[in-house]
């Protein structure tokens, strides 16, 4: 398990330059990130290395992510958007 400081770094890295991507990652980071396994945390960090435009296209299913390893974590981020509970607090 990653320590709290490393988790905070991941949260900070999840803040993006494109508002659309930032909003899609926000719920996932707040609700799902703390529950991820160490392997999934590594995949999420790899996902954050993508450009904002590529990430937006993958999240919106405009194009398929060529890296098959990232597809499950992309699906988890998309699934976090399906739950429409009010998001409380900031990340």
From TrEMBL:
InterPro entries: SDH (IPR005631), SDH_sf (IPR036714), SdhE_FAD_assembly_factor (IPR050531)
Subcellular locations according to the entry: Cytoplasm
Listed Gene3D superfamilies: Flavinator of succinate dehydrogenase
Keywords on record: Chaperone, Cytoplasm
Primary site of residence: cytoplasm
Pfam family, one: Sdh5
SUPFAM superfamilies, per database record: YgfY-like
Gene Ontology cellular component annotations, sorted alphabetically: cytoplasm
PANTHER family: FAD ASSEMBLY FACTOR SDHE
Recorded family membership: Belongs to the SdhE FAD assembly factor family.
Name by which UniProt lists this protein: FAD assembly factor SdhE
């Amino acid at each position: 398990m990653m320590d709290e400081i490393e988790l905070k770094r991941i949260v900070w890295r999840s803040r993006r330059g494109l508002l659309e991507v930032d909003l899609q990652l926000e719920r996932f980071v707040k609700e799902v990130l703390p529950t991820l396994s160490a392997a999934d945390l590594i995949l999420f960090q790899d996902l954050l290395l993508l450009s904002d435009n590529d990430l937006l296209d993958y999240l919106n299913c405009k194009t398929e992510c060529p890296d098959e390893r990232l597809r499950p974590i992309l699906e988890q981020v998309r699934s976090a958007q399906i739950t429409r509970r009010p998001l409380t607090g900031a990340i």
